[in-house]
């Protein structure tokens, strides 16, 4: 750690914070530029103008946009994103339990897929050009270039319909044991794992292959080091930065996958809440969920950047 | 180098260790192919798949064995049979006819949206590269910030705001992918705009639009086209996902994503009604990927993405 590097990291943090603020403004502007009037939409066509005006006042829609944006932003910062337009429940209450459900899904998926992807990526980089490498490469490119719901459908078809190992839907756990919990959430996790592992394995393979092409690896090979030793003691320590970068970037694909997976398996998470919110045009819910997702995404991308900075010796010792 | 393997034709992830773009530049026979990019077997296959779906988008209705909306059979989620090649859907309608009709929605909407995004991105990127200065800085910063919204999230926000009529969907998809097109065009155009012949054109007193379209654009057509193909794949995937969530193309119209959604109830029976539309999406996206890979190769794409 030195001054130059901490300045670099601080810049990165400030950029992320600034981007998040911009995204918040973009989300707010887009969702309030509605062609229709929210109050009119809630009350329906037959409402009297007085009732609509009263509701507009009650919702604070008659205040100037900048003031509304600032009060919305302030509310978000203290954890109060307003009331749902559909049922009047505080958005924070709606999000509360579901956020932890989604985080649980993401955490378990990450815990399963990171080791698996690293294993696949590093081994196929070592065996580059072999049949194993091509099979892994073709399988991962297939998973990457098809929609997540196809992966989910095929997973249900194989694991729930043909093999009957797992229940097709993510219900609330039947029993209280860990095994029951695992079983009821297995399908969403399996599906997400497929998507994430494919991304991560491809990026890991590319990172390791880049390192293996470096002259010092050639030198180690000429000195007679075996392939395992070359990868474990020479290449991997130097590839950790790019690999950490790849892992963080692939994990940001979780956010897209989670939207599909929570919907298809009816998982009670925040993405399902947001999709339902979009369908009913419940804008406070959509705004709050969108910001949570964007914050998570920016955090992962920032972590990826920081991993790249920390692992670059030229930046570390300047 | 202890070993020299030939990269698998289309699925090679990285240029071979020897250096970038060995496949198109250092091969001794490359002179013959300079004017006509070489397409391998994989590329031909990709081209045929893409051509097939384009024809189906235009004339699919002529090939459909049944009327799209007609309820033909009391049995729902039938398996494949001679009568119904792809089985029947949740109302007993013919899935083959519905997939063929959905081609027009999926391919049509995605093509228009991608074209709009590419056109807007190319105009903006060229203008930024040729003009430079604060115009370039402002445009780049703004669009960079938009890139940091995950595309599915962006889609949900825009659909929440503008609804999911077909024009709104096209604009939504175009807006989401415009920043990406802009970034690519600007990145490649900046390099070209710094070359001497552009300086000469400026000294000749040519207008900005002339420099953008006559001097710079012809030199970046390759990367822009490759990007167009990849962007098209992303647009198809996003459109299908939105439709799958019930937020894209609305009934009575149905694109491939909506077909998967409305028949998802047949999944526990392993009905082809769910699998076939999903496979149609997969074949289109994989086909485009195969074609782009063999036409332009990884090296070009990596250069463009940087």
The portion of residues forming beta strands of chain A comes to under 5%
Largest interface (CB < 8 Å):
A-B, 61 and 48 residues
* CATH topology category name of chain A: MetI-like fold
Q: Any idea what the shape of chain B is? A: elongated
What's the overall average pLDDT of chain B, rounded? 80
N-to-C series of helices and strands of chain A: HHHHHHHHHHHHHHH
Let me know the average pLDDT of chain A.
81
The low-pLDDT segments of chain B are 1-36, 298-306
- Give the structural class of chain A: mainly alpha
The level 1 CATH classification of chain A is Mainly Alpha
Amino- and carboxy-terminal Cα gap of chain B: 27 Å
Fourth-tier CATH superfamily name of chain A: MetI-like
CATH uppermost class of chain B:
Mainly Alpha
The tally of beta strands of chain B, per DSSP, is: 0
Total number of helical segments of chain B?
11
How is the main sheet of chain A built?
none
Oligomerization category of the chains in this entry = heterodimer
| Topology pattern of chain B, helix = H, strand = E | HHHHHHHHHHH
Largest sheet of chain B: none
Unreliable segments of chain A (pLDDT under 50, ≥5 consecutive)? none
Please describe what this structure looks like:
The complex is a heterodimer of chains A (318) and B (306). By secondary structure, chain A is mainly alpha-helical. Chain A has one domain: MetI-like (MetI-like fold), CATH 1.10.3720.10. Chain A has helices at 3-32, 38-43, 49-59, 65-77, 91-126, 131-145, 148-162, 178-184, 186-212, 215-222, 227-251, 253-264, 270-279, 283-310, 313-316. In chain A, helix 1 runs antiparallel to helix 14 (283-310) and helix 11 runs antiparallel to helix 14 (283-310). The longest helix of chain A is centred in the middle third of the chain and has 36 residues, at 91-126. Chain B is mostly helical. Chain B has one domain: MetI-like fold (Orthogonal Bundle), CATH 1.10.3720. In chain B, 66% of the residues lie in helices and 0% in strands. Chain B has 11 helices and no strands. Chain B has helices at residues 22-25, 41-63, 95-131, 133-147, 151-162, 166-193, 196-203, 208-216, 221-244, 256-262, 272-305. The longest helix of chain B is centred in the middle third of the chain and has 37 residues, at 95-131. The radius of gyration of chain B is 22 Å and the shape is elongated. The two termini of chain B are 27 Å apart. Mean pLDDT of chain B is 80; it is low at 1-36 and 298-306.
């Amino acid at each position: 750690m030195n001054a130059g590097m901490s300045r670099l990291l601080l810049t990165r943090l400030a950029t992320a914070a600034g981007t998040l603020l911009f995204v918040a403004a973009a989300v707010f502007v887009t969702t309030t530029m509605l062609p229709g009037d929210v109050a009119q939409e809630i009350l329906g066509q037959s409402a009297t103008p007085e009732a609509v005006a009263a509701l507009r006042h009650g919702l604070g829609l008659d205040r100037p946009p900048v003031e509304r944006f600032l009060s919305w932003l302030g509310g978000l910062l203290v954890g109060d994103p307003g009331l749902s337009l559909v049922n009047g429940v505080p958005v924070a209450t709606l999000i509360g339990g579901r956020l932890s459900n989604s985080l649980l899904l993401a955490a378990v998926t990450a815990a399963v897929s990171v080791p698996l992807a690293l294993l696949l990526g590093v081994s196929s980089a070592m065996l580059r050009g072999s049949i194993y490498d091509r099979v892994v490469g073709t399988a991962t490119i297939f998973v990457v270039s098809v929609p997540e719901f196809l992966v989910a459908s095929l997973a249900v078809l194989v694991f729930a319909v043909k093999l009957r190992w797992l229940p097709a839907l993510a219900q609330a756990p039947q029993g209280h044991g860990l095994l029951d919990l695992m079983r009821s959430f297995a399908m969403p996790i399996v599906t997400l794992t497929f998507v994430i592992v494919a991304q991560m394995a491809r990026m890991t393979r590319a990172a390791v292959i880049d390192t293996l092409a470096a002259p010092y690896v050639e030198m180690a090979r000429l000195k007679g080091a075996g392939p395992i030793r070359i990868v474990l003691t020479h290449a991997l320590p130097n590839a950790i930065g790019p690999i950490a970068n790849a892992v963080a970037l692939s994990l940001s694909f979780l956010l897209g996958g989670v939207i599909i997976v929570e919907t298809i398996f009816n998982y009670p998470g925040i993405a399902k809440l947001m999709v339902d919110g979009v369908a009913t045009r419940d804008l406070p819910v959509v705004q709050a969920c969108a910001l949570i997702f964007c914050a998570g995404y920016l955090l992962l991308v920032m972590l990826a950047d920081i991993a790249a900075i920390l692992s670059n010796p030229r930046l570390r010792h300047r | 180098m202890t070993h020299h393997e030939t990269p698998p034709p289309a699925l090679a992830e990285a240029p071979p260790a020897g250096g970038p773009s060995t496949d198109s530049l250092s091969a001794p026979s490359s002179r013959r192919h300079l004017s006509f990019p070489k397409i391998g077997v994989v590329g031909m296959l990709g081209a045929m798949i893409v051509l097939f779906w384009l024809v189906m988008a235009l004339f699919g209705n002529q090939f459909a064995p049944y009327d799209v909306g007609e309820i033909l059979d009391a049995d729902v989620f039938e398996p494949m049979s001679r009568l119904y090649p792809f089985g029947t859907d949740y109302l007993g309608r013919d899935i083959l006819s519905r997939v063929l009709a959905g081609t027009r929605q999926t391919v049509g909407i995605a093509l228009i949206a991608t074209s709009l995004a590419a056109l807007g991105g190319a105009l903006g990127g060229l203008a930024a590269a040729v003009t430079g200065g604060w115009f370039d800085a402002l445009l780049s910063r703004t669009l960079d910030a938009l890139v940091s919204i995950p595309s599915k999230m962006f889609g949900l926000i825009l659909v929440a705001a503008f609804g999911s009529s077909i024009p709104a969907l096209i604009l939504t998809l175009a807006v989401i992918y415009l920043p990406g097109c802009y970034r690519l065009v600007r990145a490649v155009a900046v390099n070209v705009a710094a070359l001497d012949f552009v300086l000469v054109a400026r000294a000749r007193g040519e207008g900005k639009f002339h420099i953008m379209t006559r001097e710079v654009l012809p030199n970046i057509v390759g990367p822009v086209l490759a990007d167009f193909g990849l962007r098209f794949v992303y647009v198809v995937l996003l459109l299908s996902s939105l439709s799958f969530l019930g937020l894209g193309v609305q009934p009575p119209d149905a694109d491939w994503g909506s077909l998967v959604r409305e028949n998802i109830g047949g999944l526990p029976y392993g009905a082809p009604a769910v699998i076939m539309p999903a496979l149609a999406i997969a074949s289109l996206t994989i086909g485009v990927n195969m074609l782009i890979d063999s036409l332009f190769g990884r090296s070009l794409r990596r250069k463009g993405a940087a």
